[in-house]
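Morning, I've got a small favour to ask if you have a moment. It would help a lot if you went through both lines with me. I owe you a coffee for this, so here goes:
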Amino acid sequence: MSSLRLIRNVASKRHLKLSPLSWRAYTTPATFKPQQKDPQLGDYPDLPWVSNQELPARGWWDQQMRRNFGDPIQEYDEVLSMWGPDTPPVPPQKALFQLSLAISAFVGFGFLCKYALMPERPTVPREYPYSGLVRELGGLEENKAREETEEIDE
């Protein structure tokens, strides 16, 4: 109970609000568990995750696969080989930022063309007297579109 009073005392001096969930957060150490080695590999070496595309092009026994004779093969060789997916030259976060920047520039240019560069109408729209010639054309009922009928040729 004394530790609880100490926390509240420190929090009141620093004008902090502590929730009950964070009262003991400082006393529980973070436990780090290293990733366990795959038991199916046995005594096979744990090789680093490096794509063969990132290795230098010259100086290999097998120039095409960039591998020396007798070298152990990575567990995920089909992903890390020369024929696997290409490694991106630009990090994905930076690529997403650049894509969003290009899209926003394109949309911004569209709004600029539509609202800033569009000239005003050079003429005034035509105005007809008597509610736009409704009475002269026979009224609203006379000017409705005709219903579509299917004519069957027999």
